[in-house]
């Protein structure tokens, strides 16, 4: 009887781990496919040659930010809207970096843990979105202009 209980508990544990892995894989698949389509589109329009990173940026409308280098070796960000729409490519040589944006947020906000830093396009131009938890474990989003590092928007204590 003891062996049956051990077998059943072991099987249920294995089944739970398998289900969790399956859910994580299937849950991430739409994002991965969207990112791959955006990378292919940016490359096909010859806006980017080598891709360093790509991620989905969502505010009022979803888009994919593709970071990398163009044919001239310059660091660029290509903003690819989901569906149809015009791609925008901006050089990042004269913009603030993700590290500089995090440092600005850390200096002025009560930050416990930074969750992510993403570059996205807004109506006023490119912005860095920094999501973090404060000391009270509240979720916060701050947006800094990528051009000069000025505060664009703050969404605090969610």
From TrEMBL:
InterPro entries reported for this sequence: Cystatin_sf, TseB-like_dom
Any single Pfam family the record assigns to this protein: TseB
Ranges where the Cell wall elongation regulator TseB-like domain occurs: 38-81
Alphabetized UniProt keyword annotations: Membrane, Transmembrane, Transmembrane helix
SUPFAM superfamilies in the record: Cystatin/monellin
Gene3D superfamilies from the UniProt entry: 3.10.450.40
Domain of life of the organism encoding this protein: Bacteria
Membrane-spanning parts: 7-27
Keyword Cell membrane applies: no
Name this protein carries in UniProt: DUF5590 domain-containing protein
Organism (species): Planococcus notacanthi
